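Lest this sound abstract, we think one record worth quoting, the chain in one-letter code, the fold tokenised, each line plainly labelled:

>
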Amino acid sequence: MPGRTLPTLTQAEVESHNTVKSCYVTIGTNVYDVTDFVESHPGGSDLVLEYAGKDVTEILKDEDSHKHSDSAYEILEESHIGFLGTQKSNGKAQNGSATGSQANGSAPSVHPRTGMSCEEDLTKETDYNTDYKQHRFLDLNKPLLMQVWNGGFSKRFYLDQVHRPRHYKGGASAPLFGNFLEPLSLTPWWVVPTLWLPPVAYGTHLASQGFETTTGLAASWLLGLGLWTLIEYILHRCLFHLDDYLPDNRVGITLHFLLHGVHHYLPMDKYRLVMPPALFLVLATPFWKLAHSLFFWNWYLATAVFCGGIFGYICYDLTHYFLHHQNLPLWYKDLKKYHLAHHFLDYELGFGVTSRFWDQVFGTELVTVVKAK
């Protein structure tokens, strides 16, 4: 297709398109999307689906089956969407060098898992129609939630697509519900400190009445702040990225999309970067009970620890927003590159947002030589 650079796909990505709703085949290193042709195949759709996600070079030439004419190859050429890459199917970077500028200074390569080459790609506007025709995932022109619910996607296909970032045109937010519930999914960054700093201040004041010195209060409060950094890591890694253990059904997939998938799908959406208040209350309630269970002998101590933790959450959400959308001081720029690499390079590493400390502790640090263009 002249005038357009075709993407590189891994073998695993091609194999995941193996249904009537999304059917890819290959001939050598060429990848074709034959979804529109499945139902109209003269020999029936079952014959096409038998080779879905596979190479069809030999079967097209097989005279015992049916040697295909030149017109069949012309139809395929119109459906040419990309090339089969040589990377391992899991797409993992080796020593952090699978994407970005190569050591010899050549042009950056497209990463097989995300379809991107550098952090600047996160802000390149997505062509809605081309994206939907190529991937058969979600149409950004329409509300997303019901598309996920009714899409019939396999877990493997869903995870591949939801971690390929898109960017909505004009910096607006893609419709999620498409009805009166839409405002509940949109949260400006300033809502977080405005809504939660006053309760933290009041809770800290109540907790202070149980301490004889401000030193004890400060130590308890800082303990909660420190515990938050671990909680932040655990939530991000073990809840938001519960990918391997995600149920392979539409309930599990839809919940994953609402909780964190939509952020990886549209990482530069300004209004879906911080936690909506309703979701925060759902997650904060068990931590209130946990704090008072761990420090059951002293209500004031437990409350101080909890308030320190909530302050840590506020810092986390604001940091997360600024990492995506603000020019930061020099000492913060490295953290920004680190987090954005989590989006465009490897979403299975780099779970720390406010720091990479726990990534270093648990061996999930994202080490990369990626540079922006």
Confidence is low (pLDDT under 50) at residues 87-108. The two ends are 25 Å apart (CA to CA).
